[in-house]
Amino acid sequence: xxxxxxxxxxxxxxxxxxxxxxxxxxxxxxxxxxxxxxxxxxxxxxxxxxxxxxxxxxxxxxxxxxxxxxxxxx
Length: 74
Fold this sequence. Notes:
There is one protein chain. With 74 residues, this protein is mostly helical. The chain contains 4 helices and no strands. It has helices at residues 3-11, 16-29, 36-55, 63-71.
């Protein structure tokens, strides 16, 4: 049995609330690893949108207007 298996077995003895707290604390200490696929997709999308804006196919919207639209109730 590995250390992880032993710790998991002990964690399963905790209440739901204690396990949730443990999970939160573990997530706080795990370093965030960037996903190369996501980073590449965002770069492609950013470049596509910039090209559309520069060509005139898309227009810029002031941030206040964009936020108002985003949070407007349907």
